[in-house]
Design goal:
This protein is of the alpha+beta class and about 180 residues long. Helix content is about 50%, strand content about 20%. It is built from 8 helices and 4 strands, in the order ααααββαββααα. The protein has helices at about 1-25, 25-40, 45-50, 60-70, 95-100, 130-140, 145-150, 160-180, and strands at about 70-80, 85-90, 105-115, 115-125. Strands 1-2-3-4 form a 4-stranded antiparallel beta sheet. The longest helix is centred in the N-terminal third of the chain and has 22 residues, at about 1-25.
């Protein structure tokens, strides 16, 4: 009788653990939710999905910057093994539409997820075929005030929306000066 009671308690514990495991989001689901928050520029959601915004590097700033540039994601795919997941976001924003309308831009979020939260993250511009160097060099030579002013610190002290507006202004000047 005592054995049967212990067996019954053990089964209840196992069922409870299985139900709890089913209700907890997987690391991949956390990454997908994080990627969606990035696309929306929702820093509050990024913070709620992470242990520390500082551990995310420039991701929160870039999320707000790209949101201010009207990021339009055509797709977002998250893949990974265990706790290391990379989300690749493909799409356009106002700057890339203006400067490089024939290109699709890829950005990657490299995430470490532990216990259902993002513990580390980094951002990567993953479109080497887009010739941003020419624009960046022109901007540095002709509009250093933007790089030294509203876009000086992408680690958190500059306002992403102000920087985005300045970048769009400089992109227009670049197209006018270089003939597109």
């Amino acid at each position: 009788m005592l054995f049967a009671r212990h067996l019954q308690i053990l089964l209840l514990l196992l069922i409870g653990a299985a139900l709890a495991a089913c209700s907890a989001p997987s690391d991949l689901e956390v990454a997908e939710e994080f990627s969606a928050a990035f696309v929306e520029g929702d820093v509050d959601a990024l913070e709620s999905l992470s242990t520390d915004l500082a551990a995310l590097g420039t991701i929160p700033w870039r999320a707000q910057f790209l949101s201010a540039l009207d990021l339009e994601a055509e797709s977002s795919t998250c893949l990974g093994l265990e706790t290391q997941i990379t989300c690749t976001i493909v799409g356009h924003n106002a700057r890339t539409k203006l400067l490089y309308p024939d290109y699709t831009v890829k950005r990657s979020l490299h995430l470490t997820i532990e216990d259902g939260v993002v513990t580390r993250g980094s951002f990567e511009f993953a479109s080497p075929e887009i010739p941003l160097d020419a624009f960046n060099l022109w901007a540095a030579a002709n509009r250093p005030d933007v790089l030294e002013g509203p876009c000086a610190d992408i680690d958190g002290t500059s306002d992403p929306a102000v920087c985005a507006a300045a970048v769009l202004e400089v992109a227009g000047e670049y197209l006018a000066a270089t003939g597109g």
